[in-house]
Amino acid sequence: MTGKRGGVILAHVLSSICEKMNRKKSLPNDGGRSQDTLKRCLSTLDITLLGIGHMVGAGIYVLTGTVAKDIAGPGIIFSFFLAGLVSILAAICYAEFGTRVPKAGAAYVYTYIAVGEFWAFIIGWNICLEHMLGAASVSRAWSGYVDSLLGGWIKNTTLSLIGGEAHYDTDLLAQYPDVLACLICLLYALAMALGVKITAAFNGILTLINIAVMVLVICVGFWYADVQNWFQADGGFLPYGFGGVIAGAATCFYAFVGFDSIATSAEEAKNPATSVPIATLVSLSAVSAGYILVSAALTLMIPTDEINPSASLPEAFGQLGLPWAKIIITIGALCGMTTTLLGSLFALPRCLYAMACDGLLFSCFGRVNSMTQVPVLNLLASGTFSALLALVFDLKHLVEFMSIGTLLAYTIVAASVIVLRYRPLKAESLIYAPDSSESENLDYEADSLSEDSSVDTISQTGELIGHSTSGVYLKAKYKWLEPLVGNFEAERVVSTCVMLFCIFTFGICFQLKMYWSGDSESAADSSYWAFLFNGFILFFALACVTLIGAYTQNTQGLTFKVPLVPLFPALSIFANIALMVHLSFVTWLRFFIWVSLGMLMYFGYGIHHSRQQDGGENTNYSILRTAGGRQSQDIEGEEEAENKQKGGSTSIAICQRFIGRKKSKGEQLK
């Protein structure tokens, strides 16, 4: 009896944990968010300039030289094109979510609604790291540009103060502690505490200066262009092969990560339903074109082996005997990197705010200053941690580590778009982003129906009537699939197919990486088996997408829709994973260490303090605290009776937390 009772208790514990990890937020419900709200004061132009300013910074003034010289050569043009294409695919998915859920937190909130709490925390945890690394890397690049103007005085002075050659030069840490970068992070974090409108105005001015400098670089660069510079290196235009182009795209992706600050600012937009998709597409298209043209101008002006990675554009114009252009470009670079730094420090506190309001982080991060309506404590904390990273870490490692978390977030956002499109419509799904005519203090909360509400129950509200309005079901031409999936809920089938598609895609992308990198030369002899294996994976990946497309979609109320669902998000998932597998093993190792720290935070605090708690203290945890008493006997008796009736064991309930429950007979008849 003791062993059986222990098994029952263990089953309840696992079932409770699984239930908590998979609980979701309803679309309009804030899940108990605090009464402090952010101020709606940003126009479409403000958000567009915020997105451009966040993207056009260190990515173009520092990353361009590094990728062109060490990774892709003149093929950096294709690297930026591929990275821009991947970003546009992800941005369109963000735009649909930005109109669905005009809340701070971006990918974190989207994942919480579509996938569940556990994966939402993982995404939010990595987004916090992404923005911290972004701020640190930009401030490090900012300091490097100032140091280049001073002839290396900052670096040489710092090295002399810490003992000359006795500095910490490892594969991870920087050659010297960058005090200027640390101070820049702290200074801008304090400045942003003045309010979002002042920050947006300052960001707009610097962004316009930055755009003017980019136009100057493109025009003057093409005037002094020499096509022979593209073919002087060994290997010609692609000295590192096509694998170098893909690896360069994975690194260049860092230059586009700022567009998610647009979705993050949705809760402060006057009209997020219109502003978010317009600002996302306009800013990303403009930045993509600018990056491609600037990288082409740089590699046409001088050979790639003569590029200075730390200050590529000013040094290139200096080699051409144009000192005036060097000074102007340096000023533009400082303006551009300042806007990128502002973008990172803008998005990070708001992600902390969203997670704290949901109870997954400490509640102190969910408070907003009553005067400026800005989360001041979050700004100070994020500025301090970013400053410490900028002080001791090297720019190259910061950039590479930043990309993997961003790509993971984009992958899950694309998957979430598919999941929500095939989720049956409920009453809470009818509320979307507000109109510009709405007041600044609109409350987006609405009563939601229970997750167990049937179609008949929903139809009683008078809003949704009939299976065709609120249900997601197989299309008529796919009725032959009914014996295969008819016993399962459509949402669960779609979620399972999305998960399998991601797994199959990872296998395909890994095989392609091995082929492009030349590590599979020995496998070339067995190309027949490799072809069969890859064909097998590809077939099942396409079968998953086809099965998803066999269901009807729920698009009611969407002001902006991702086209060609599920094909478009599936292509975004494939592109993101293709770039992820090209990142180094050390980057993956650091990523898993950071995620492990996040697991300690989630299971130690977040899972117990989540605002999505249902039932308060009357949970399985509270019942199991008295396992030695009568309650545990009641549990045992109930489990035995249930097992006799269903002919199963308690482990079935645990498995169903992951794969979803089957339809009841009543649901099947409908």
> What fraction strand?
under 5%
Radius of gyration: 27 Å
Which range best describes the helical content: under 10%, 10-25%, 25-40%, 40-55%, 55-70% or over 70%? Answer: 55-70%
Number of helices in the DSSP assignment: 27
Q: Estimate the mean pLDDT confidence.
A: 74
Order of helices and strands: HHHHHHHHHHHHHHHHHHHHHHHHHHH
* Low confidence ranges: 29-36, 427-470, 519-525, 615-636, 638-670
Biggest beta sheet summary = none
Per DSSP E runs of 2 or more residues, the count of β-strands stands at: 0
Given helix and strand content, the structural type is mainly alpha
End-to-end gap? 43 Å
Shape: globular
List the defining traits of the structure above.
670 residues, disordered C terminus, mainly alpha, 27 helices
Describe this structure in words.
The protein is globular, with a radius of gyration of 27 Å. Helix 2 (44-55) runs parallel beside helix 12 (272-301). Helices cover 65% and strands 0% of the residues. The protein has 670 residues and is mainly α. Mean pLDDT is 74; it is low at 29-36, 427-470, 519-525, 615-636 and 638-670. The longest helix is centred in the middle third of the chain and has 35 residues, at 323-357. The protein has 27 helices and no strands.
Overview in brief:
The chain is mainly alpha-helical and 670 residues long. The chain contains 27 helices and no strands. The radius of gyration is 27 Å and the shape is globular.
